[in-house]
Amino acid sequence: MKLYRTKLQEKLKEALEAVLPIIGIVLALCFTIAPVSPGILLAFLAGAVLLIVGMMFFTLGVELSMTPMGGRVGTCMTKSKNLAVMVCLGFILGLIITVSEPDLQVLAGQVPSIPNMTLILAVAGGVGLFLVIALLRMLFSIPLSPMLLVFYGIAFALAMFVPKDFLAVAFDSGGVTTGPMTVPFIMALGVGISAIRSDKHASDDSFGLVALCSIGPILSVLALGLIYHPQGGAYEPPSVPDIDTSVELWQLFSHGFPTYMKEMAISIFPIIFFFGIFLLIFKGIGKRELIRIGIGLVYTYVGLVLFLTGVNVGFMPAGNYLGQVIAALPYRWVIAPIGMLIGYFIVRAEPAVYVLTKQVEEITSGAVSANAMQMSLSIGVAVSLGLAMVRVLTGVSILWFIVPGYAIALFGSFFVPKIFTAIAFDSGGVASGPMTATFLLPFATGACVSVGGNIVTDAFGVVAMVAMTPLITIQVLGLASRIHSARLGRPAGIGGLAAETSGAQAAFELLGDDEIIEL
Fold this sequence. Notes:
single chain, 0% strand
């Protein structure tokens, strides 16, 4: 228990470092150019407390449960050497974890003319299919860059025929399906598979699963857009809380807790069920490890309930109202730099970003530090929020930003070390999580309401923009690493990673001593 207390203190410190800058920015805006009612401010502060505590429990829970579960599944699937089993399990796993993703439920409720379950199953099928493609890529060492070029080429070709009211939502879908439930499991799955391989590219190929899984939803939703032809938006802005007393504040959050307790129970149960069936087939897991995974799942559940209640009940109304107030100012252009400032810090509070940065640091034995990753992601998201606010103010089509952005990212993928391409495209899906959906998207929709724009075409697309810019900034980091390595006379790759550290060894270091399977 002492170990868990120490770990919780460490996670609490990390959560405070991630969230306090956002609180400071919002408070500064509230007391200067964007005054808000006491009710909104109280709800925001209470939500921030829940957000911090939720992040603390979630990040520890991921380390104890989701990471070893995903690693174990990946390792055992590869050891089976049965391609049919891997394909079937990969598709089922992609289907299950996507249906479990809470952000997908939010997106489904906002897409007009398409039944919720139709959209959810189509997106889940897209993720399942591309998870299989990603697994096969790892097994057969297929280069990632050409695959990304082909699949994104197909996506942009389809985009030419999709109604504009549906276009931004389609690209947003690629970001919302790679959230706090999906990313830890999928990334650990890649580590588990790479641990079996002994070739020199094993560690490079351990990334890229999230990158490919983000394309499936885009293609499937674009295909649905060709079929259903939506004609308008159905977005409902979050209601502004009217709070006069502390009792009313408690009632506001107490109504949210049961909703997210049920939602997260439904989300986690399919993963637990799948892992239980998996254990019956493959066995080989110790009692001590099983207990630790169980404790981790409890932490994960509690953390996500607190996190989602905080951001949905406290952060969403505050984001929407701030967007409305700032965009209504005579100098409304200021919303662009303010959006950039918020974007710079808010990505650090995304739960899945913590998972990615820590895994990159450990897989590369510190050659790519978590701080360098976080800085690159923060710069990327800041740029994306600035561009998104320009879209809100001007009504420019998202294609004018998405097409050049992905063209630069795909072109650059042929010039940077392989591992940075995979990390960059993974980062795009990871950066666009629940904080984006529940604060940045409402911030954009609130601004859009004030300027009289079309919410579906002008405000939607924030998630897509957030998912795009890290592709470029992380690859710039990779290019800098290659230039630096060349100057020092070291081999290109993971920043001159020591040759004696193989991909399998690095993967085993991440999984921990208790998770190592005798090969």
